Amino acid sequence: MAETEPANFIEDIVEEHNGNGRFGGQVITRFPPEPNGYLHIGHAKSMCLNFGLANKYGGRCHMRFDDTNPAKEEEEFVESILEDVRWLGWDWGEHLYFASDYFNELHDYAIDLIKKGKAYVDDLDQEQIRKYRGTLTEPGVESPFRNRSVDDNLALFRGMKEGEFEEGTKVLRAKIDMASGNINMRDPVLFRILKTPHHRTGEQWVIYPMYDFTHGQSDSIEGITHSICTMEYEDHRPLYDWFLDALDIYQPQQIEFARLNLSNTVLSKRKLIQLVREGHVGGWDDPRMPTLAGLRRRGYTPESIRNFCEQVGVAKRQNVIDIAMLEHAVRDDLNRRAPRALAVLRPLKVVIENYPEGQVEHLDAINNPEDSDAGTRKLPFSRELYIERDDFMEEPPRKFFRLAPGREVRLRYGYFITCTDVIKDDAGEIIELRCTYDPETRGGQAPDGRKVRGTIHWVSAEHAVNAEVRLYDHLFTSERPDDDDDFMSTLNPHSLEVVPDAKVEPSLADAVPGEKFQFERTGYFAVDPDSQPGALVFNRTVTLRDSWKKVTAKL
Q1: Is 153 helix (H, G, I), strand (E, B) or coil?
Q2: Is the pTM of this model over 0.85?
């Protein structure tokens, strides 16, 4: 039994089954992705639900690949999926399976249905089958090949298996009800001919089962108790039950929930493949992609994604989750764990004229104010600094509290400085500021108690480390690009801005891919795998501003 109260309607069902003894109190779930692309944030919700449910009730979750379409599947996708599941913290133990493990059993099931007069070989092509199937308001029409004898069907199916027929010339269909109000029950295709090598079985098979014929039987073979699916499979459940009843084999309980929909992105596998193939992104792991590989490269943590999935919850009703909620989850997580650093993305040089030439001080800086055990580090301070270009205005508006001519500001962890002169090039562009500092204000406090309203960050010019910074934004300008007929028309042309000449503090010189930092006053950043020794690349994970927190505060 569960140690805590049920958290959603699926757990209510599990509790009921445990109470009445169905499945003997066991909870065995499965996570069954198709290896035709990379996992995305929607898969993370399903993954967390299936693995989490099994963990909560002391059961197990099977990792199973739905690899029934060799034309679209690759070993690369298998490896990436396994990596993503491990990264999110889930463990399938010894229970790694493939639908292709069951090709022999599925073939035997098909033979059984033929012998029972419940399946037949059809010569109609794909377009004819679609036409004969009817519509939501009109019944289907039976195929002229529907009433072949059992012996003829067995012989033809054997010929399909032995490669005697070309692709598209024959399929095996279930014989159910062409007038059913549920189109899925109108003689669905069970096997089709595909003379394409399979990534695991090679050229052993030239016929492959359809997903609908694989789904329930694979669950049955593995002894799955609770087959958790998204809502689009609700209308398929009567078909899956029909197969299991017709074959007289063990029957799991299928339960449907609403899939995750996220604003400002697309989660359709077909659309994600299009983005990759047409070069709109740099690959499946592009940090703008909603794939787990993309989110990982961008700097998202597994903890933040699991927390997000938990906060989203499980329901039957479809809705669109604001992407700000996902950003809040990673911001909240990184705030607690990411060390702080100073980084100037668009540097403007500052010369402190009354600071001794050649002198270097090392100022104390807090590594993470949210973690008392994180300690401090030393920041070199010298006569020449870089500040953010946006932190200076020659003619500032009334509410601009950063540096300006004649104005005093505080340097983070450092001194008060005052701008005394502005140096420009021949084109009138500001290239350097001349300032003075108050040596009595080390640590950001004035002995006379005077206050300044602005605090800005900086990096010592002599000690700065060069870096490329990639600033990522939403991939689509539309909040619901899936609703647009031409979703590509809403691609955000400013989803990536590359800043080539950023300056970061020297403690980051040895940062390695995957490390995460908060650049103070700027946002959270992760070291990209493109980084090389002496050529750092940082990806912006998320800005410091939390729009979701503001939304929830108003509720």
Answers
A1: helix
A2: yes
